[in-house]
From TrEMBL:
One of its GO terms (molecular function) is ATP binding. It comes from human gut metagenome. This is Iron-regulated ABC transporter ATPase subunit SufC. The lineage of its organism: unclassified sequences, metagenomes, organismal metagenomes. Keywords: ATP-binding, Nucleotide-binding. Signal peptide: none annotated. PANTHER family: ABC TRANSPORTER I FAMILY MEMBER 6, CHLOROPLASTIC (PTHR43204).
Amino acid sequence: MRTVSKGVEEYQKDKKGALLIITHSTRILESLHVDKTHVLVNGKIVASGDASLVDEINEHGFERFLEA
């Protein structure tokens, strides 16, 4: 994961732009500077926040978003 995260960060610095990362693994996001986080269920955004949303998912799980 760290290798992938490092590659993503280098790409972002080189291109000086934004990236949209869609993943089921919050671990990759832990090594990146994340400005915004969105949770999608069945193609719809059910929650939005900053990087703290990733921590919340890691601590409490993703299941609560399935009920949204």
